[in-house]
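Section: Multi-chain targets

For targets with more than one molecule, the full set of components is provided together so that the structure can be written out for the assembly as a whole rather than chain by chain. Components appear in the order listed by the source. The example entry contains two components.
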Amino acid sequence: MPEKLTAEATLEREYLPVRGKILEIAAALDRITRCEGSNMHDPRLKQFHSALEILLGAEPDRAERIQLLFSRPYEENWPVTLQMPSL
Amino acid sequence: MYYIDPHIHMVSRTTDDYETLAKMGCVALSEPAFWAGYDRGSVDGFRDYFRQLTDFESRRASNYGIQHFTWLCINAKEAENVELSREVIAMIPEFLDCSGVLGIGEIGLNKNTRNEAIVFLEHIDLAMKTDEQILIHTPHLEDKYQGTRMILDMLGSDSRISRQRVLVDHVEEHTIRPVLEAGYWAGMTLYPVSKCTPARAADMVEIYGPERLLVNSAGDWGPSKPTAVPDFILEMRRRGHDEQLIRRIVYENPLAFFGQSRNFVFQRPI
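Its structure, encoded as tokens over all components, is:
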């Protein structure tokens, strides 16, 4: 990190953009709730909730963990599963 | 600041874009072969596309003082047609000695299928037999992590590969570490929604350092921004990073990676 960039300065810079993004998420979730029909059991909503829980943590790898949450798992045995010619 | 965009699909962009890129400091770019938005029907369709990439497009760029380089392949989205893929792979050597051809790319995976993996391996084999560099596309969104790991498995299984001559592109927070730790170059693509933003790319530079790291716009026919690299430069400056570090990522690093290709002849701007 460059010397000039303190936590205070970074928070100052990010405060309004983050506030705006949180508001966008809140409004989008409200929009989904307002619409007709129920999708309470849609696994994507559960993903959203899990992602928001990750944001509440204090670890410095939230972005990486959010990415993994929205990713298909990696299987080491994929060459066997796909019946690949020998690697 | 002069910069190089190492991944941009200019056949899908207008001549006005070339003018804008030149005004913003772009002095060179490299254009990997990719999907046209529809599946091409024959090997001759690819032959015409490769002529466009190696001839017309470089002339169009040079009108604005931009040096154009390119990579050749059949894209993963068309790899389900294995028979056509093999015809294209057999035809690629016709173009490998053209000026500005840097290697084989962008090969990779899209939906992580068996056919995609087979065609990927056959491209790798061609690159090894012809001593070419490789530029690799990693999948989008939920398929990226799995696909990137599969690609690393396949690369790691081929002892002929010089890792410093391979660029694994479109890395994000969950894939950059294994790519860099394995010794490959990593590319961060600045896309409006589906890939990486300038701010997140700057974060990754701060976390991992500038070694073997590139940034690109991957501008194409979809929602994308051909001037995304200058956005990254601005973000780095706003954070107080020095010009030397920024220049290394957007100019010196592409030169170092491209410089390993026998067809890379670069005229440094005055």
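Residues 43 and 88 of chain B are 6 Å apart (CA to CA).
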